[in-house]
Amino acid sequence: MTNSKSTSAQLMTNWRWWMCLLLFVATTVNYMDRQVLSLTWKDFIAPEFHWTDADYGTITAVFSIFYAVCMLFAGRFVDWMGTKKGYLWAIGVWSAGACVHAACGWATVHIEGYGSVAAMTAVESGSAAALAIASTSVWLFLAARCILALGEAGNFPAAIKVTAEYFPKKDRAFATSIFNAGASVGALVAPATIPLLAQYFKDKGIGGGWEMAFLIIGALGFLWMGFWLFMYDKPEQSNYVNDAELEYIHQDDAEQAAGVQKEEKAEKTIPFWQCFTYRQTWSFIVGKFFTDGVWWFYLFWAPAYFSDQYGYSSSSGMGIALIFTLYAIVTVLSIFGGYLPKLFVDKKGMNPYAGRMLAMLIFAFLPLPALFAQSAGTVSVWWPAVIIGLAGAGHQAWSANLFSTIGDMFPKSAIATITGIGGMAGGVGSFLINKGAGALFTHSEKMGAAFQFMGFEGKQAGYMIIFCICAVAYLVAWTIMKTLVPKYKPIVLK
Asked: Which pLDDT belongs to residue 263?
């Protein structure tokens, strides 16, 4: 150990929580970068480029599938590169990708040969010229989103690896829920800032306004990189972690008695494709595939939903209030998600896996009220905001525990790899639901009263179909996961 501090009667340092805070900030920035498009496309970007719901659905779907493919290898990259360098590369690339979005409007104007954005916007909707503008701009945004996805793919594998490095098993779900709450906070802060930024710069005549929103939010990632360089080292190498904290971190390390070096040597023997031979890997894949798309649907489509169904734009006071309320519920309730299995372990004497699975079953019921979101919306627009907020909170609590099952059962050096594999599965699920939603919404809107489902017609019926899928996804996932891995069974390398 590099620490020279006295080992007797030592007060334990708490540097692990500073690491958790740093992960929280990174995840917050991550989700703000993702939200810029969802908060600006309907009211700022779509009129310029003549986008339909199907166009936006294509962009979000391709982002999801490219993110999925990158996740498959991002975890392996982080394991190979090391946590410090791997995380730096990840956030640097995604921040650059966020900024690149701002150039898509300028590029479309010049490629299509228009003198200004106003001239491009004035083109008749549905005309051949409008379709050409839409096609070119979609391809440009796809390129920018793919750069963003390439960098973002490294965020969760690196963050989960840091959590496994700095926290014992009993604390990992709680730590994960805290940094994962950054997703909710990012989604919470975004609607209160991004539409206003876009509107401000639009009123100032600086492009369409949305360009500056991408640039400003994207720049936050570069600022974070400076803090990461200064603050992060492995706990054994950190000058801020004393022996008491190090002992706490390694309290349940099964390989500790044999020495950390022996552990690391054993862990390196797990080949990439061998990961797919474990039922634990497939359990994680199922958990991500069925549920990630639900969260991303709410993340990408909630602003458009309130705009389409209730007429509240993302820059209006009511639109901001609805999205803010939604994610406030997600943020507050999701943190408890990491504490619940800790309670089961400490108070009920359950092993970490059993505690997590019980907690995940409880959280799997929270998205069920989405079945009634459309009906409740006829009473008050606030009811869908509350219901979607509860569903989002259920997802975040579920996700925190799902990620922690990896650290429970896989060696530390394989954690980022398994996280990446599961992330790919989640991306595939997200691709299917976002592409399907975009196509469904465009089709149902065209069909009007001829398209009906459970008493709703037109686009409302389309939303109802997706809400039904989102409502039951978690219970389906939990049932399959429990079947695959009914009891705690860690991977033992020989």
From this structure: 45
Average pLDDT, the chain: 86
pLDDT band at 191 (very low <50, low <70, confident <90, very high): confident
Output the pLDDT for position 353.
81
β-bridge partners, 457: 452
Alpha-carbon dihedral 483, 432, 404, 12, rounded to 10 degrees: -170
Topology of the domain covering 23-236+271-484 = Growth Hormone; Chain: A; (1.20.1250)
Of the candidates 130, 133, 153, the residue with the CA atom closest to the CA atom of residue 34: 153
* Cα(442)–Cα(450) distance, integer angstroms: 14
Distance CA 400, CA 356 (A): 9
> Which pLDDT does position 356 carry in this prediction?
84
Mean pLDDT of 400-416: 78
Q: Which amino acid is at 484?
A: L
Q: Which of 353, 290, 352 is nearest to 482 (CA)?
A: 353
Mean pLDDT of 452-461: 91
Out of 7-21, 146-160, 225-239, 258-272, least confident range: 258-272
Domain ranges of the chain: 23-236+271-484
Q: Are 108 and 25 in contact (CB under 8 A)?
A: no
Measured distance CA(10)–CA(334) in Å, rounded:
34
pLDDT confidence of residue 228: 92
For residues 404 and 171, the answer to whether their CB atoms sit within 8 Å is no
